[in-house]
């Protein structure tokens, strides 16, 4: 997920302030608090994910979508903006109505695999420090699987 602060800080500033490299002893467990579904974030999507959301949402309210174009490559991708609460979050509890077909960025949060191979974690997630020590290699493999599922190369 990308915080709207991203645009103001740029990639380097954003990564430095919000994300840290995963140390070997990092413990994490999703405690299903839904904090990450209620942040003013821009959730990046692939086009297959966009189609899936529009189809699966049915009569539910859809989020506000946007499209970002990379000025260098001309490649584009869609995103949606969380305004208060993601519309795909159930009103009661902390259940994502898209699960298990939820977006790649949601499936892999609070982890991020950098182009240089470093695994980062988002310091805002309430599950950091809870549960067991994460296996860094397994988490990287999971991210690669989710990327593939999302239609990324
Ligand atoms: S903020 Fe972290 S612990 Fe809470 S729902 Fe999101 S991933 Fe799970
Ligand atoms: S799609 Fe699901 S997991 Fe992602 S922000 Fe919305 S409710 Fe949360």
If you had to describe this structure to a student in words, what would you say it looks like?
The chain has four helices and nine strands; from the N terminus they run E-H-E-E-E-H-E-E-H-E-E-E-H. It is α+β, with helices and mostly antiparallel strands and 153 residues long. The chain has one domain. It has a four-stranded antiparallel beta sheet. Strand 7 (111-113) and strand 8 (119-122) form a beta hairpin. 16% of the residues are buried. It binds iron/sulfur cluster (SF4) (2 copies).
Care to give the gist of this entry?
29% of the residues lie in helices and 24% in strands. The chain is of the alpha+beta class and 153 residues long.
Descriptive key words:
single chain, four-stranded antiparallel beta sheet, 4 helices, binds iron/sulfur cluster
End-to-end separation in angstroms reads: 18 Å
How many independent structural domains?
A: 1
| Beta content | 15-25%
Estimated structural class? alpha+beta
Give the topology.
Elements: E1 2-3, H1 5-18, E2 19-21, E3 27-28, E4 41-44, H2 47-57, E5 64-69, E6 76-81, H3 104-108, E7 111-113, E8 119-122, E9 128-133, H4 136-149
Antiparallel strand pairs: 1-4, 2-8, 3-9, 4-6, 5-6, 7-8
């Amino acid at each position: 997920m990308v915080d709207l602060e991203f645009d103001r800080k740029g990639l380097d500033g954003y990564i430095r302030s919000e994300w840290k490299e995963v140390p070997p002893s990092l413990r994490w467990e999703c405690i299903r608090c839904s904090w990450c579904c209620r942040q003013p974030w821009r959730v990046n999507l692939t086009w297959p994910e966009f189609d899936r959301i529009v189809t699966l949402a049915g009569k539910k309210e859809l989020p506000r979508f946007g499209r970002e174009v990379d000025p260098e490559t001309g490649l584009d991708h869609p995103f949606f903006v969380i305004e208060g609460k993601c519309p795909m979050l159930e009103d009661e509890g902390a259940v994502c109505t898209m699960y298990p077909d939820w977006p790649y960025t949601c499936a892999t949060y609070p982890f991020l695999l950098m182009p240089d191979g470093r695994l980062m974690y988002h310091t805002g997630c309430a599950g950091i420090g809870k549960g067991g020590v994460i296996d860094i290699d397994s988490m990287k493999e999971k991210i690669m699987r989710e990327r593939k599922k999302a239609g990324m190369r």
